[in-house]
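Chapter summary example: a protein plus S-adenosylmethionine.
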Amino acid sequence: MPIKEEYLRRNRTLWNTLRDVLKDEYEEYLRYITSPIYRPYIRANTLKITPEALKERLLAKGFVLEGTVLPYAFRVLHYPSEMGKTLEHFLGYYYVQDLASMLPAHILSPKPHSYVLDIAAAPGSKTTLLCALMENTGMVFANDASMDRVRALVNNVERMGCLNVVVSIYRGERLVRFYREYYDYVLVDAPCSSIGTLHKNPEVALWWSPKDVRVYSRVQYRLLLAGWEMLKPGGRLVYSTCTLTYQENEDVVEEFLRVSGARLVPVPDVGIGEVDGGIPGTKRFYPHRTATEGFFIALFEK
Ligand SMILES: C[S@@+](CC[C@H](N)C(=O)[O-])C[C@H]1O[C@@H](n2cnc3c(N)ncnc32)[C@H](O)[C@@H]1O
Protein backbone atom coordinates (compact mmCIF):
# COMPACT_ATOMS: atom_id res chain seq x y z
CA MET A 1 0.00 0.00 0.00
CA PRO A 2 1.47 3.38 -0.90
CA ILE A 3 2.31 5.34 2.21
CA LYS A 4 -0.09 8.13 1.37
CA GLU A 5 -3.11 5.87 1.44
CA GLU A 6 -1.95 4.60 4.81
CA TYR A 7 -1.73 8.18 6.10
CA LEU A 8 -5.22 8.84 4.88
CA ARG A 9 -6.60 5.64 6.40
CA ARG A 10 -5.29 6.74 9.79
CA ASN A 11 -7.55 9.78 9.68
CA ARG A 12 -11.05 8.34 9.35
CA THR A 13 -12.73 11.74 9.73
CA LEU A 14 -10.76 13.16 6.83
CA TRP A 15 -11.46 10.04 4.78
CA ASN A 16 -15.22 10.45 5.42
CA THR A 17 -15.15 14.18 4.75
CA LEU A 18 -13.53 13.57 1.36
CA ARG A 19 -16.10 10.89 0.58
CA ASP A 20 -18.91 13.35 1.34
CA VAL A 21 -17.38 15.99 -0.93
CA LEU A 22 -16.40 13.75 -3.84
CA LYS A 23 -19.28 11.27 -3.70
CA ASP A 24 -19.03 8.77 -6.59
CA GLU A 25 -15.73 10.31 -7.75
CA TYR A 26 -14.07 9.45 -4.46
CA GLU A 27 -12.37 6.22 -5.61
CA GLU A 28 -10.94 7.91 -8.69
CA TYR A 29 -9.74 10.81 -6.57
CA LEU A 30 -8.12 8.41 -4.09
CA ARG A 31 -6.33 6.53 -6.89
CA TYR A 32 -4.97 9.82 -8.20
CA ILE A 33 -3.72 11.26 -4.95
CA THR A 34 -2.17 8.00 -3.77
CA SER A 35 -0.37 7.43 -7.03
CA PRO A 36 3.42 7.61 -6.60
CA ILE A 37 3.65 9.65 -9.79
CA TYR A 38 3.64 13.34 -9.01
CA ARG A 39 4.26 15.76 -11.85
CA PRO A 40 4.94 19.32 -10.71
CA TYR A 41 4.55 22.56 -12.63
CA ILE A 42 6.82 25.53 -13.07
CA ARG A 43 6.08 29.10 -14.05
CA ALA A 44 8.45 31.08 -16.25
CA ASN A 45 9.20 34.43 -14.66
CA THR A 46 8.37 36.73 -17.55
CA LEU A 47 10.06 39.63 -15.72
CA LYS A 48 13.37 37.91 -16.48
CA ILE A 49 12.98 35.42 -19.32
CA THR A 50 10.52 34.37 -22.02
CA PRO A 51 8.82 30.99 -21.61
CA GLU A 52 10.47 29.85 -24.87
CA ALA A 53 13.98 30.77 -23.72
CA LEU A 54 13.41 29.09 -20.37
CA LYS A 55 12.17 25.95 -22.08
CA GLU A 56 15.21 25.85 -24.32
CA ARG A 57 17.60 26.19 -21.35
CA LEU A 58 15.87 23.50 -19.33
CA LEU A 59 15.56 21.09 -22.26
CA ALA A 60 19.31 21.40 -22.76
CA LYS A 61 19.70 20.24 -19.16
CA GLY A 62 17.54 17.14 -19.70
CA PHE A 63 14.20 18.44 -18.40
CA VAL A 64 11.08 17.26 -20.21
CA LEU A 65 8.38 19.95 -20.25
CA GLU A 66 4.82 20.00 -21.47
CA GLY A 67 2.84 23.18 -22.29
CA THR A 68 -0.28 24.09 -20.29
CA VAL A 69 -3.29 26.37 -20.73
CA LEU A 70 -1.21 29.24 -19.33
CA PRO A 71 1.40 30.53 -21.80
CA TYR A 72 4.01 30.93 -19.05
CA ALA A 73 3.47 27.59 -17.28
CA PHE A 74 4.87 24.13 -17.96
CA ARG A 75 4.21 20.72 -16.52
CA VAL A 76 7.48 19.00 -15.69
CA LEU A 77 7.39 15.40 -16.90
CA HIS A 78 11.00 14.73 -16.04
CA TYR A 79 13.65 16.63 -14.12
CA PRO A 80 17.23 15.41 -13.92
CA SER A 81 18.10 17.45 -10.83
CA GLU A 82 16.16 18.96 -7.96
CA MET A 83 14.01 21.71 -9.39
CA GLY A 84 14.91 24.17 -6.67
CA LYS A 85 18.63 23.67 -7.20
CA THR A 86 19.26 24.68 -10.79
CA LEU A 87 21.06 27.85 -11.86
CA GLU A 88 17.86 28.97 -13.58
CA HIS A 89 15.93 28.66 -10.31
CA PHE A 90 18.64 30.54 -8.43
CA LEU A 91 18.50 33.32 -11.03
CA GLY A 92 14.73 33.61 -10.62
CA TYR A 93 13.92 32.43 -14.13
CA TYR A 94 11.18 30.16 -12.82
CA TYR A 95 9.04 29.43 -9.79
CA VAL A 96 7.95 25.91 -8.86
CA GLN A 97 4.19 26.32 -8.44
CA ASP A 98 1.15 24.18 -9.02
CA LEU A 99 -0.94 25.18 -12.04
CA ALA A 100 -4.07 25.64 -9.90
CA SER A 101 -2.14 27.90 -7.55
CA MET A 102 -1.34 30.19 -10.51
CA LEU A 103 -5.01 30.62 -11.36
CA PRO A 104 -6.16 33.02 -8.61
CA ALA A 105 -3.65 35.66 -9.78
CA HIS A 106 -4.28 34.81 -13.45
CA ILE A 107 -8.04 35.22 -12.96
CA LEU A 108 -7.65 38.42 -10.95
CA SER A 109 -5.60 39.65 -13.90
CA PRO A 110 -4.49 43.03 -12.52
CA LYS A 111 -3.75 45.74 -15.08
CA PRO A 112 -0.30 47.34 -15.10
CA HIS A 113 -0.01 50.43 -12.86
CA SER A 114 -2.78 49.29 -10.52
CA TYR A 115 -2.73 48.89 -6.74
CA VAL A 116 -3.08 45.32 -5.56
CA LEU A 117 -3.46 43.86 -2.08
CA ASP A 118 -2.33 40.27 -1.48
CA ILE A 119 -3.69 39.91 2.04
CA ALA A 120 -2.17 36.51 2.93
CA ALA A 121 0.83 36.45 0.65
CA ALA A 122 3.62 34.24 2.02
CA PRO A 123 5.66 32.57 0.61
CA GLY A 124 4.85 34.70 -2.42
CA SER A 125 3.95 32.35 -5.25
CA LYS A 126 0.97 34.50 -6.17
CA THR A 127 2.57 37.83 -5.23
CA THR A 128 5.40 37.20 -7.68
CA LEU A 129 2.96 36.18 -10.42
CA LEU A 130 0.89 39.34 -9.79
CA CYS A 131 4.09 41.38 -10.26
CA ALA A 132 4.89 39.61 -13.49
CA LEU A 133 1.36 40.17 -14.81
CA MET A 134 1.69 43.87 -13.92
CA GLU A 135 5.13 44.02 -15.58
CA ASN A 136 6.65 45.38 -12.37
CA THR A 137 4.50 48.53 -12.40
CA GLY A 138 1.98 49.86 -9.87
CA MET A 139 2.17 48.26 -6.44
CA VAL A 140 1.58 44.89 -4.84
CA PHE A 141 1.08 45.18 -1.09
CA ALA A 142 2.08 41.70 0.08
CA ASN A 143 0.96 41.08 3.63
CA ASP A 144 1.14 38.02 5.85
CA ALA A 145 0.65 37.43 9.57
CA SER A 146 3.58 35.03 9.94
CA MET A 147 7.08 36.42 10.41
CA ASP A 148 8.66 33.05 9.50
CA ARG A 149 6.76 32.80 6.27
CA VAL A 150 7.44 36.44 5.38
CA ARG A 151 11.17 35.60 5.30
CA ALA A 152 10.46 33.20 2.44
CA LEU A 153 8.23 35.81 0.81
CA VAL A 154 11.02 38.39 0.85
CA ASN A 155 13.49 35.86 -0.59
CA ASN A 156 11.12 35.01 -3.41
CA VAL A 157 10.32 38.65 -4.16
CA GLU A 158 14.04 39.35 -4.46
CA ARG A 159 14.87 36.21 -6.43
CA MET A 160 12.10 36.91 -8.94
CA GLY A 161 13.20 40.54 -9.41
CA CYS A 162 9.92 42.08 -8.25
CA LEU A 163 10.41 45.83 -7.83
CA ASN A 164 6.85 46.90 -7.07
CA VAL A 165 6.23 44.98 -3.84
CA VAL A 166 5.70 46.36 -0.36
CA VAL A 167 5.94 43.65 2.29
CA SER A 168 4.04 43.88 5.55
CA ILE A 169 3.64 41.60 8.58
CA TYR A 170 0.21 42.14 10.03
CA ARG A 171 -3.03 40.35 10.64
CA GLY A 172 -4.87 41.07 7.41
CA GLU A 173 -8.08 41.96 9.24
CA ARG A 174 -6.29 44.86 10.91
CA LEU A 175 -5.15 46.55 7.70
CA VAL A 176 -8.65 47.90 7.15
CA ARG A 177 -8.10 50.87 9.38
CA PHE A 178 -5.31 52.14 7.08
CA TYR A 179 -6.54 51.18 3.61
CA ARG A 180 -10.31 51.47 3.29
CA GLU A 181 -11.37 51.32 -0.40
CA TYR A 182 -7.74 51.78 -1.48
CA TYR A 183 -6.95 48.87 -3.84
CA ASP A 184 -7.98 48.20 -7.43
CA TYR A 185 -7.58 44.44 -6.90
CA VAL A 186 -7.50 42.25 -3.82
CA LEU A 187 -6.38 38.65 -3.55
CA VAL A 188 -7.59 36.69 -0.51
CA ASP A 189 -5.68 33.42 -0.83
CA ALA A 190 -6.81 32.36 2.57
CA PRO A 191 -5.16 30.09 5.12
CA CYS A 192 -7.03 26.78 5.02
CA SER A 193 -7.03 23.14 6.07
CA SER A 194 -5.05 22.31 2.90
CA ILE A 195 -6.80 19.12 1.82
CA GLY A 196 -6.17 20.06 -1.80
CA THR A 197 -2.44 19.51 -1.33
CA LEU A 198 -2.66 15.91 -0.05
CA HIS A 199 -0.94 14.47 -3.10
CA LYS A 200 2.16 16.57 -2.53
CA ASN A 201 1.83 16.89 1.25
CA PRO A 202 0.37 13.63 2.61
CA GLU A 203 1.32 14.70 6.13
CA VAL A 204 -1.74 16.98 6.08
CA ALA A 205 -3.67 13.78 6.86
CA LEU A 206 -1.75 13.47 10.13
CA TRP A 207 -2.95 16.77 11.62
CA TRP A 208 -6.17 17.59 9.79
CA SER A 209 -9.30 17.74 11.97
CA PRO A 210 -12.81 19.24 11.74
CA LYS A 211 -11.73 21.74 14.39
CA ASP A 212 -9.16 23.16 11.93
CA VAL A 213 -11.94 23.58 9.41
CA ARG A 214 -14.07 25.50 11.92
CA VAL A 215 -11.19 27.73 12.99
CA TYR A 216 -10.00 28.42 9.44
CA SER A 217 -13.50 29.18 8.19
CA ARG A 218 -13.73 32.06 10.70
CA VAL A 219 -10.33 33.47 9.69
CA GLN A 220 -11.28 33.11 6.03
CA TYR A 221 -14.53 34.98 6.52
CA ARG A 222 -12.80 37.81 8.39
CA LEU A 223 -10.05 38.14 5.77
CA LEU A 224 -12.57 38.10 2.93
CA LEU A 225 -14.62 40.84 4.56
CA ALA A 226 -11.49 42.88 5.33
CA GLY A 227 -10.25 42.46 1.75
CA TRP A 228 -13.63 43.63 0.49
CA GLU A 229 -13.56 46.75 2.66
CA MET A 230 -10.14 47.63 1.26
CA LEU A 231 -11.28 47.23 -2.35
CA LYS A 232 -12.19 50.36 -4.35
CA PRO A 233 -15.66 50.57 -5.90
CA GLY A 234 -15.36 48.98 -9.35
CA GLY A 235 -12.48 46.81 -8.17
CA ARG A 236 -12.20 43.01 -8.27
CA LEU A 237 -11.45 40.49 -5.56
CA VAL A 238 -10.50 36.81 -5.84
CA TYR A 239 -11.10 34.45 -2.93
CA SER A 240 -9.20 31.17 -3.17
CA THR A 241 -8.23 28.20 -1.01
CA CYS A 242 -6.32 24.99 -1.56
CA THR A 243 -8.92 22.98 0.32
CA LEU A 244 -12.07 21.12 -0.59
CA THR A 245 -14.45 21.40 2.38
CA TYR A 246 -17.70 23.29 1.81
CA GLN A 247 -17.33 25.03 5.18
CA GLU A 248 -14.14 26.78 4.02
CA ASN A 249 -15.38 27.58 0.54
CA GLU A 250 -19.05 27.88 -0.38
CA ASP A 251 -20.21 28.49 3.21
CA VAL A 252 -17.71 31.33 3.64
CA VAL A 253 -18.73 32.85 0.30
CA GLU A 254 -22.42 32.51 1.10
CA GLU A 255 -22.08 34.28 4.44
CA PHE A 256 -19.92 36.95 2.82
CA LEU A 257 -22.44 37.56 0.01
CA ARG A 258 -25.24 37.93 2.55
CA VAL A 259 -23.39 40.53 4.60
CA SER A 260 -21.47 42.49 1.95
CA GLY A 261 -23.89 42.77 -0.94
CA ALA A 262 -20.94 41.91 -3.20
CA ARG A 263 -21.55 40.92 -6.82
CA LEU A 264 -20.30 37.48 -7.69
CA VAL A 265 -18.68 37.35 -11.13
CA PRO A 266 -18.51 33.91 -12.79
CA VAL A 267 -14.94 32.57 -12.77
CA PRO A 268 -13.92 32.29 -16.44
CA ASP A 269 -13.44 28.75 -17.75
CA VAL A 270 -9.83 27.67 -17.71
CA GLY A 271 -10.50 24.47 -19.61
CA ILE A 272 -8.61 21.96 -17.49
CA GLY A 273 -11.60 20.01 -16.21
CA GLU A 274 -12.65 22.27 -13.36
CA VAL A 275 -16.26 21.97 -12.20
CA ASP A 276 -18.81 24.44 -10.89
CA GLY A 277 -18.69 25.00 -7.16
CA GLY A 278 -21.76 24.71 -4.96
CA ILE A 279 -22.51 28.38 -5.69
CA PRO A 280 -22.99 29.02 -9.43
CA GLY A 281 -20.06 30.98 -10.83
CA THR A 282 -17.51 29.61 -8.37
CA LYS A 283 -15.10 26.86 -9.46
CA ARG A 284 -13.71 23.73 -7.85
CA PHE A 285 -10.55 22.05 -9.05
CA TYR A 286 -10.43 18.35 -8.24
CA PRO A 287 -6.95 16.80 -8.61
CA HIS A 288 -8.10 13.67 -10.48
CA ARG A 289 -9.93 15.83 -13.04
CA THR A 290 -7.51 18.75 -13.43
CA ALA A 291 -4.12 17.10 -12.67
CA THR A 292 -3.49 19.92 -10.20
CA GLU A 293 -3.84 20.47 -6.50
CA GLY A 294 -7.39 20.74 -5.22
CA PHE A 295 -8.54 24.36 -5.29
CA PHE A 296 -11.58 26.59 -4.93
CA ILE A 297 -11.89 30.01 -6.60
CA ALA A 298 -14.53 32.74 -6.40
CA LEU A 299 -14.44 36.16 -8.06
CA PHE A 300 -16.28 39.31 -6.93
CA GLU A 301 -16.70 42.87 -8.16
CA LYS A 302 -17.51 45.91 -6.05
C1 LIG B 1 -2.52 29.68 1.64
S1 LIG B 1 -1.24 30.48 2.48
C2 LIG B 1 -0.84 31.77 1.35
C3 LIG B 1 -0.05 31.32 0.16
C4 LIG B 1 0.40 32.48 -0.69
N1 LIG B 1 -0.72 33.29 -1.12
C5 LIG B 1 1.17 32.00 -1.89
O1 LIG B 1 0.56 31.82 -2.95
O2 LIG B 1 2.38 31.81 -1.79
C6 LIG B 1 -2.09 31.36 3.71
C7 LIG B 1 -1.25 32.36 4.47
O3 LIG B 1 -2.11 33.07 5.37
C8 LIG B 1 -1.32 33.53 6.43
N2 LIG B 1 -2.24 33.97 7.49
C9 LIG B 1 -2.89 33.25 8.43
N3 LIG B 1 -3.70 34.06 9.15
C10 LIG B 1 -3.56 35.30 8.64
C11 LIG B 1 -4.14 36.57 8.95
N4 LIG B 1 -5.01 36.72 9.94
N5 LIG B 1 -3.76 37.64 8.22
C12 LIG B 1 -2.86 37.52 7.22
N6 LIG B 1 -2.29 36.35 6.89
C13 LIG B 1 -2.64 35.26 7.57
C14 LIG B 1 -0.45 32.33 6.75
O4 LIG B 1 0.71 32.73 7.45
C15 LIG B 1 -0.15 31.78 5.34
O5 LIG B 1 1.09 32.27 4.88
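Key point: The chain has a mean pLDDT of 96.
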